[in-house]
Design brief:
This protein has a single domain, classed as 3-Layer(aba) Sandwich (Alkaline Phosphatase, subunit A), CATH 3.40.720. About 5% of the residues have low confidence. It is an alpha/beta fold. The radius of gyration is 22 Å and the shape is globular. Strand 6 and strand 7 form a beta hairpin.
C-alpha cells in the first residue's frame, strides 16, 4: 500500500511528457561480485544462467572497470564523474576516521554525495521517468538519501553498506560493531524470508505499478557482500558439486550467487510478462572486485571468492579489485552474444543512458564518462580515450594507499607509502605477475607523469604523513 500511494503521488505531479518509445531502464548492481563469478566470465562452481542470458542477448564487456570499493563506484555511477573528482574515494563510513597507526593518514573523503551533484536519477526524473531505488544506497546520511537525489521511490536505501543479516527481519547488532542496523520498508515479512528474494519482490512491484510511465529501476542488491549467508538447500547443493580443482571453493557464497541469479531471472520474466522486454535496457554489473577475505564471523574457513586469473581483490587497484562483470542488453541496439574488449568504466553508463533516452548532457559539467552506444552496436569499435585512472588513497586489507592508470595494454600503479611504482602489460600478463618498471623506464616515467597530471586535473585528495606514526622495531612484540 505504501508503494502504491507513493506512485500515485509521483504520477499525479510528474511531468509525463516522455515519448512512448523512450526505453525503460533496469540497472541491477551486485555488491562485491568478482569479475570471474559469472558463468559467462568463466566461473566453475557458480551457476548464473539468467545473468548469462543477458550477455547472450547483448554485449559482455571483458574489460569493464569500477572503483576499488563500493561508495566511490556508486557515486561515479550516479554522477558520471570520477570518484576522485566527486571526492568520495572510500566507503561512506570509512570517511569518518581512518587508521591512526599507519605510516600515512588517509586522504579526506566526503561522507555524503553532495546535493550540488546531479544524479542519473535526477536527470531521468526531470524528463518524466519514474525513478526507484530498491536495495543498497550507501551514499551518505539521512539528509542525502535517495529521495534527495532524484529517486521517487526508495525501498531499503540507507547510509549502511551491508545488512546485519540476509534473513528477515534483517536487523540486529554485533556483526559490524555495536550499532543496530536494519533495512527499512521491509517490515511485513516472515521467518525464513531471504533478503535477495524480498528486494526482488519489491522491484517487481515497482514494474507492476509503473503503468505506462517510463521507469528507471535501480535494483541494488546487497548480495554477495558479507555476511556470507545462503539458503540451506542451495548450500547443500553446491557442497555436493565442490571439487578440489575448482578455483571457487565457498559453497555458501555460491548459494548467494544462485539467489542473485534467480532474482535477475524473475525481473527478466516480469518484463516479458508485461510486454516490456522489447523496450527496456537491462544492465548487470558489480560495484568492485570480489571480496577475497574470509567471513570468520559466519564460521567460514575459505575466502568468499577467488578472482583468478586476476590478481588480488576488493580494495586493491590490481585487476582483481577494479575489473568487474558488465553485461548489457538494449533491444534493437546490442549485438547478440557479442564480446567487447574495449576498456570501459562505470562513469560511462550515465552518458550512455541519457543518450538512450534522448536527454542531452548539460553544459558546464566535467563528465568523465563516454557514451558507449557505438560499442553496443559494434563491439569491435574503439573509444576516443587513451587512459583510465583509479585512485584509492586509503588502507584496506589488500592494499596501502595507491593510484593507478591503464593506458591501452599498459598499466602503472603508484604506491604512496614508499613511492614505489609497478608496470604491467595486461595483454601479455593479465594476472599482473611480472613488474616491468625497471625494463621500461621511459614508459614508466611517462605513465607516472600522466597519472599525476590527472590527479591535479580532478583535484584528487591525497594521503599525508602521519606525525604520530612510530615504526615497529624488528623483534618487538
Amino acid at each position: 500500500m505504501r508503494l502504491i500511494n507513493i506512485l500515485f503521488f509521483v504520477f499525479l505531479f510528474s511531468p509525463l511528457v516522455v515519448a512512448e518509445d523512450r526505453p525503460n531502464i533496469v540497472f541491477i548492481l551486485a555488491d562485491d561480485m568478482g569479475w570471474s563469478d559469472l558463468g559467462c566470465y568463466g566461473a566453475d562452481l557458480y551457476e548464473t544462467p539468467h545473468i548469462d542470458s543477458i550477455a547472450g542477448n547483448g554485449v559482455r564487456f571483458a574489460d569493464a572497470y569500477a572503483m576499488p570499493v563500493c561508495s566511490p563506484t556508486r557515486a561515479a555511477l550516479m554522477t558520471g564523474r570520477h570518484a576522485a573528482r566527486v571526492q568520495m574515494t572510500i566507503w561512506s563510513e570509512g570517511s569518518l576516521r581512518g587508521p591512526q597507526n599507519r605510516k600515512l593518514l588517509q586522504a579526506d573523503s566526503l561522507h555524503s554525495l553532495p546535493h550540488s551533484e546531479t544524479t542519473l536519477a535526477k536527470y531521468l526524473q526531470e524528463a518524466g521517468y519514474l525513478t526507484a531505488l530498491v536495495g543498497k544506497w550507501h551514499l551518505g546520511d539521512e539528509d542525502h538519501y535517495p529521495e534527495t537525489h532524484g529517486f521517487d521511490v526508495n525501498i531499503g536505501g540507507t547510509h549502511w553498506g551491508a545488512p546485519q543479516t540476509f534473513w528477515w527481519p534483517y536487523r540486529g547488532a554485533g556483526r559490524f560493531g555495536p550499532e543496530y542496523r536494519y533495512v527499512p520498508h521491509l517490515e511485513f515479512g516472515r521467518p525464513g524470508e531471504y533478503l535477495t528474494d524480498r528486494l526482488t519482490d519489491e522491484a517487481l512491484t515497482v514494474i507492476d505499478n509503473a503503468g505506462d510511465t517510463p521507469f528507471f529501476l535501480y535494483l541494488s542488491h546487497h548480495a554477495p557482500h558479507t555476511p556470507i549467508e545462503a539458503k540451506a538447500e542451495d548450500v547443500k547443493y553446491f557442497e555436493s558439486r565442490l571439487r578440489p580443482e575448482m578455483k571457487h571453493q565457498n559453497a555458501v557464497y555460491a548459494g548467494m550467487i544462485k539467489s542473485l541469479d534467480e532474482s535477475v531471472g524473475r525481473v527478466l520474466a516480469k518484463l516479458k510478462d508485461r510486454g516490456l522486454d522489447k523496450n527496456t535496457i537491462v544492465i548487470f554489473a558489480s560495484d568492485n572486485g570480489g571480496f577475497i577475505g574470509i567471513d570468520k564471523k559466519a564460521g567460514h574457513t575459505v575466502p568468499a571468492t577467488n578472482n583468478a586469473p586476476l590478481r588480488s581483490g576488493k580494495g586493491s587497484c590490481y585487476e582483481g579489485g577494479i575489473r568487474v562483470p558488465l553485461v548489457v542488453h538494449w533491444p534493437g541496439v546490442t549485438t547478440r552474444g557479442a564480446v567487447c574488449r574495449e576498456p570501459v568504466i562505470v562513469m560511462d553508463l550515465l552518458p550512455t543512458l541519457l543518450g538512450a533516452t534522448g536527454i542531452g548532457l548539460p553544459d558546464g559539467v566535467a563528465f568523465d564518462g563516454l557514451n558507449l552506444t557505438q560499442l553496443l552496436k559494434d563491439p569491435s569499435a574503439t573509444l576516443d580515450r587513451d587512459a583510465l585512472h583509479f585512485h584509492y588513497p586509503h588502507y584496506y586489507s589488500t592494499t596501502t594507499p595507491v593510484s593507478a592508470v591503464r593506458s591501452r595494454d599498459w598499466k602503472l600503479l603508484e604506491y604512496y607509502e614508499d613511492n614505489r611504482v609497478e608496470l604491467f602489460n595486461l595483454k601479455e600478463d593479465l594476472g599482473e605477475t611480472t613488474d616491468l618498471a625497471n625494463q621500461h623506464p621511459k614508459r614508466t616515467a611517462q605513465l607516472r607523469k600522466q597519472l599525476q597530471r590527472w590527479r591535479d586535473e580532478v583535484g584528487a585528495h591525497e594521503p599525508t604523513a602521519n606525525p604520530g606514526f612510530r615504526p615497529r622495531k624488528i623483534g618487538a612484540r
